[in-house]
Structures are given as C-alpha cells and as structure tokens.
Fold:
Amino acid sequence: MPTIYHYCDASAFLSIIQNDALWLSSLYSMNDTGELKYFLDKALPAVRKSINQYRAGDGFEFFSHTFKTEYYGACFSTDRDDLYQWQAYGQRGKGLAIGFRSEGLCNLAPMSFGLTGIDVRFRGPEKSAGHQIGIVPVQYMTQEQIKICADSVAESVKTDAGGMLRSIQGIVSAINIISSTIKNEKFAAEKEYRLLYAPRIYETHEVGVKETIEGPMTERKWRVGAYGLTPYFEFKGVRAHVIEVTLGPNCSEIHGEHLGDFLRAHGMNVQIIRSKSTLR
Structure:
C-alpha cells in the first residue's frame, strides 16, 4: 500500500494533529456532483430486472431500504506535491499535505470483488454493508466501463437463484461499496485513495423517529461545509501514522521552525518537506 497524502488548509491541519483525528465526511458532500450516482444509475435497474427474473420478490427493496448504508470518507492522493491538489484542496498553496502510512490507518487483510471491468479492494473485516473501515483506491471509469461492471453485478444474481433472499444483502453491499469508489474519468489526475467508513444505520418509527448507528464509530457529528450541512465521524488515532508533512508553495510556515516545534509538542518526529511547485 502506498504513502497517501491528505491536502488541507492550515486550520484543518491544526485540528487533525491536535485532536489526533481525521473527519470522515458524507460522500454526498464531495466536490463531484455525480458522486455515488455513476454506478447506481446503471446498476440498480439492471439488478432489479435480474432479481425479478429470478422471482426474488421484494428482497432487493427490503434490504436497500432497511439497511441505510451511507458512506463517509476522507480523501487522499498518492502525489506528495501536486499543483492540482494545492489549488483544489491546499488553500491555493497556503496549506499542507500530510503523508500517512496507508497500512497503518487501516491494517486489515484486503479483499476484492471479482467483477468484470473493475477490481475494488476494500480493506475491511467482512463484506457486509456495515462495520467497515477501509482504504480504497478510487476507480476512474468511462460510462461504458461502468455499464460492464453494472451488468456483471446483475449477472451475479443468477449464481444463487435458489437462495436469493439470503444473497440480496450481499448484492446491495457490493453496489454500495463500488458506488463509493467510482468517479468520472475527468477526475483521474487526483490519483485518489479514500479512507471509507460504512456504518449501519437503522431507522424506527415506533415512537417518533429513532436512528441507531452500528459500527466502530457511533457518534455522528455535523458541520457546515463548502456544500452545506455535512455529517461526519471522527476517526481517531491518526498521528502515529504520519510519516511526513509537505509545506505548500505559499505556506506561511515555509521555513518550518514553528511547524517542527508544533509537531514535536505532539510527540511527532516526522520529515518536513518543502513544495517544489511554483504557484502564485
């Protein structure tokens, strides 16, 4: 697994180090307006058609509505000093890029879905929709590639027609995971990895509306972000996995003296690197 870099402004950097936590925000609040929809729009109709053909009844609708799987994530790049990342996420070069050991953030055995047209490796304890925390490389796909992948998921329905109701949950899980790892090919320059969290959220309506969250993190918080009200979870214990910090080309800490003191004050002895990008 590669070293991955989280680009951020100075305030976010301060928060991450001081609080020893990354914010895993709802994927619905990402900068790609088509986030989560590229695969869903093609996969859901294909899978519903296949399920109806094999007489699974309302199994798909039952699981997709009962288990509200909403993915939360923090974004990284494999590029340490990338001009696009500085402009888009690093406060136009005034910010910093935190380099993490990816296997330290999530040191679990990888697994993959054997689907035509895609290789999704999700580092998590199981394939079920909930309780997952994983490091995932984003797949940048054309519309044709996405269609091939969606058809492959629909085709998998045939493999267990007799026990369809038991397998629907796995199919819904696969659709959710794949949807959270696919982006428009136009974003390929980001070379993105994601730290993803998939809590299982139950809603009951017996006495009002009650929401129960299952998973390693159960306290969902809220903030006002660039794209409106944004839910997030705090992923703790990240300081130990920082191996370097890159200063943006316009970062006010360009000489690094105070930055070094700040890091040492939090028990960190990591390499400080200065950007070689030229950005006004």
